[in-house]
Amino acid sequence: MLLHHYPLDPFSRKLRIGLAEKGIACELVDVLPWEREDAFLEVSPAAETPVLDDRGVLVPDSMAALEYLEETQTARPLLGRSPVERAETRRLIGWFDVKFVREVTDLLWREKLLKRVKRTTVPNSEAVRAGLVNIHAHLDYISYLFERRNWLAGDALTWADCAAAAQLSVIDYLGDVPWDKHPGAKEWYARIKSRPSFRPLLRDRVVGLKPADHYDDLDF
Amino acid sequence: MLLHHYPLDPFSRKLRIGLAEKGIACELVDVLPWEREDAFLEVSPAAETPVLDDRGVLVPDSMAALEYLEETQTARPLLGRSPVERAETRRLIGWFDVKFVREVTDLLWREKLLKRVKRTTVPNSEAVRAGLVNIHAHLDYISYLFERRNWLAGDALTWADCAAAAQLSVIDYLGDVPWDKHPGAKEWYARIKSRPSFRPLLRDRVVGLKPADHYDDLDF
User: With contacts defined as CB-CB under 8 Å, which chain B residues touch A10?
Assistant: First the structure.
């Protein structure tokens, strides 16, 4: 399998973690999706990463790709064992893919990292301020879930953990996750951060933008 | 089954169309999600519509709900018959749920309809202008797909049609869909608009905001 991805794209990272957790070997193809190169537009009509390539079967969209993996690679399921468990996992994926993105990632990562990489405009400071406020409620929610469960959606690690950790990992690259104020969320993140599936993400670097000092430290 | 919904919420509408297409009777519970009433927060921790209630099993998040319906109500599948077909359907659902929402719905519906209903600020005219430009590329893409296929994702109507029509229906309420410039997209929309599953949506009204004249007209 191939994964067309941008290393600091949280949706690509969700798939990278999940693929590794499922034990699927996958070659990575680096893309700068906003350059809209013809070769990439043929792979992704939406010009967005990630795109999974399963021996020629192209699956753009991270949600479509993870459902495809669950249907075709059943050895290590990461959605849950029953329709009700899977509904809970998918609810939480939606929480992080949509709500967290709208309230945090779009305001911090998109403003501070993506604008820098794309060399467009400067970050909107009002947006950044709002993102730094909004993240607290999400870390509280992770702590709340983690107090009651072994992983976010239940006993086992699922795509919900991959989705949440993927979003937080790019905010953490910027040093904008207030871990010290949220010990529960920090404990959950330390647990997933120390897994082998997470290691490759800790080695990613953006040219001209150094990660926060603790970014690749397992004892942050 | 119950569906907690806001009548003019496109994600609720996606489920209403799909439920009807699957032949599932469903009672509607009207909610104003932004009021964050305690009773609703118990149903939806994210304070968002729609939430499906299957005899006590609560499934918030429209993607989680439609996957739950596909798993538990198999009589009339609306995702496709193989992993590859389902991947294509889900890719297009993602297109309309994420890309269309970011480029059109957030700029038109959220600005013009939601701000009016919530009585917050006035619409941002720059956002509205951008939304009116962006919608053309999406209508072109619908025309492109519809020239090659019977429905958006292939031979049969799927959740991709429900997702696209749901988004367009709330923009059409505002009269902001330039149908005349996109005959292919118009023909596809006329086809889904005339189905019994769509009729209840055409009767929805927002207090203080009349729909465009052609909104409930099948010969628009």
Answer: none
Alpha carbons A127 and A92: distance in angstroms, whole number = 24
Q: State the complex-level ipTM.
A: 0.96
Instruction: Tell me the CA distances in angstroms from B82 to B4, B92, B175, one per residue in order.
Output: 31, 16, 37
Residue A208: band (very low, low, confident or very high) from pLDDT cuts 50, 70, 90: confident
Hey, which residues does B59 pair with through a beta bridge?
Answer: B52
Measured between alpha carbons, how far is B107 from B161 in angstroms, rounded to an integer? 21
Strand arrangement, sheet containing B2-5: B27-30, B2-5, B51-54, B57-60
Q: Any CB–CB contact under 8 A between A184 and chain B? A: no
- Chain A positions touching B54 (Cβ under 8 A) are none
B103 in contact with A, Cβ within 8 Å: no
> Omega before B123 cis (within 30°)?
no
Gap between the Cα atoms of B212 and A151, Å rounded: 48
- The rounded distance, in Å, linking the Cα atoms of A134 and A111 is 15
Q: How far apart are CA A153 and CA A163, in angstroms?
A: 11
The secondary element (H helix, E strand) that includes residue A115 is: helix A115-118
Contact indicator for A148, A141 with CB cutoff of 8 Å: no
> Tokens representing B90?
């889900």
Question: What's the whole-model pTM score?
Answer: 0.97
